[in-house]
Amino acid sequence: MQRRTVERGLPSGAEKFIRPRPRGNHLLDVSHRYNELRRLTAYDDGATAASYAYDNLQRKTEERLNYGPFALSYAYSYYANGQKKTVTGPDAVSYAYTYDPNNQLASIQLPAGSITVNAYTWTAPERITLPGGTTRSRQYDPLMRLTALTAKDAFQNSLLSYQYAYDRAGNITRKATEHGTYDYGYDRLYRLKTAANPGPLSQEAYGYDALGNRTTDSNLPGPWSYDENNALRVAGAVAYDYDANGNAIKKTAGAQTMSLGYDTSDRLTEVKDAQGNTIGRYAYDPFGRRLWKETNNTRTWFFYADEGLIGEYDSSGAETRAYGYQPDSTWGTDPLLLKQGKNYYFYQNDHLGTPQKLTDTQGNVVWSARAQAFGETTVDAGSTVTNNLRFAGQYYDGESGLYYNGARYYDPKLGRYTSHDGLSVARHVRRWQATLGMPGQLPLEINPYAYVANNPLRWIDPTGTNIFGYCGSGPSRYVLVDGRFAAACENHDRCYLQCRANKSKCDQTFWNEMNAVCDQMPTGRDKELCYLRAENFFTAVVWFGDGEFQEAQAAADCCKR
Predict the structure, then answer these.
(1) Strands 40-44 and 84-88
(2) Cα(287)–Cα(471) distance, rounded to whole angstroms?
(3) pTM above 0.90, yes or no
């Protein structure tokens, strides 16, 4: 139910919306205020209140959030072309951004020094220098797939060294690192089937049913069973119970249990142990972002900006840690830095933006971890700094072992979410069918619990609602394409983002690259289907890609140069 009222005294065209919002098992009113151009200017849910300020071009210049015990704010400034110039956090520390003549990020000025992008390969960063002299380098193949990722300190000592190999479909088959080699195998639907990991990580082998439910797991032996809604009921020796909305409410492993409680919007609000003790409590803002968590009678508050989580605070409002990102980057993905007090630490991330190590300004490794393919992470014992960021958009909760992932919580041991995502699935199916005209070709994300189509080496889900890689019809559109064409699709996106790009040429190159993939396949039905799918994707971008092309050109700021 939603009520709308027009409040007198507001600017012309401005309205005040009031809608019920759950708190615990109850509903309360949330009011939203908008200006005459429909930009949100304030909200109040009775517990917290926020206000937003904009410049004459309707670019957000400030956001302020009143938590009750304290208030926090951050601010942006902009260049004339609309690119972000500075961001000033709640601690009053400002980061300044500069750009090269192609409007690509050139540097980020920090109190600790400068993060400098020294070179690009097309639109992808090739070499980055961090404060203190640590350098990070990337190499790409002709399809712009990352083939090598290295980090060295100022004295050229190796900090990280990853090399990647791919199959014809673009799946990662090998990752060679400084601590050993990982080999990966896939089934015919490109779901991860095996992962041969270096020690101390365990080896991984998985089986799946037709809907993408895991049926075997070498690390959780025994039966795996599901109900008619794809909810996991048994995984080896562990049993799960669910509520009527498809949320996991109880996990039982012998005498050990963990109970989960939810509000009326299916958001996790409480976790209890086997003795019934509350070990975690959680609250959310009107947009579903986690506002605070409470463990051991200690509450941690969270604050967000356009790019994701930017800070954590204690109950007095004092900052305990802060995070930094590239301007306008994908939500919660590929973090740049962690700040604790006056100390800055820099993330060394993998190809998906998942943290692998943290280094200080002298190039010393202060945190490192190794992970199973689906994200179950072992932090090295020598780590001196705490880092809770995991896969894109995920935050590790030690009390439950789950990862907070925006709309839902993720269980890395199971490679699936604890809650159903039926609305998202329906949306993706409709988009897939309507855009491509292929009612028989459904995306692998049809499973409402599975994480990224069971291919965590390739795809990300920063918000818990939408599987994607860095590919789509434009910079803000993400479609799960046939895996064979992922590289061609990524190149197509980059082509759209080039200033004064020619849409027809971008689309034609996309067509040629897809057909080149099909040409390499052996003669037979699969090859014919490959050409058919290439034609469908080409038709989709030609007939339905105009809006995305215009968005991409606007993002490239072509009209103002």
Answers:
(1) unpaired
(2) 25
(3) no
Q: Quick check: is 4 in a domain? A: no
Q: Which of 191, 84, 165, 130 is nearest to 444 (CA)?
A: 191
Does residue 9 carry a pLDDT above 70?
no
Report which secondary-structure segment, H or E, holds 249: strand 248-253
Tell whether 6 is covered by a domain.
no
Domain span at residue 186 reads 47-417
410 and 481 both lie in a single domain: no
In a domain, 15, yes or no: no
Residue 441 lies in a domain: no
Percent share of the chain, pLDDT over 70: 84
Our count of domains for the chain comes to 2
Rounded CA separation 458/456 (Å): 5
Compute the distance between CA of residue 122 and CA of residue 322 in angstroms, rounded to an integer. Answer: 31
Q: What is the pLDDT of residues 417-471, one digit of tens each?
A: 999 875 444 444 444 344 334 333 334 446 889 999 899 999 999 989 866 554 4
* For residue 519, pLDDT beyond 90: no
pLDDT at 526: 67
What is the CA 220 to chain-centroid distance, rounded?
A: 27
Strand partners, 98: 107
- Tokens coding 342: 């006056």
Asked whether residue 87 falls in the same domain as residue 210, the answer is: yes
- Higher-scoring residue by pLDDT: 28, 214: 214
What is the distance between the alpha carbons of residues 406 and 541, in angstroms, rounded to a whole number?
30
Q: How far apart are CA 290 and CA 214, in angstroms?
A: 29
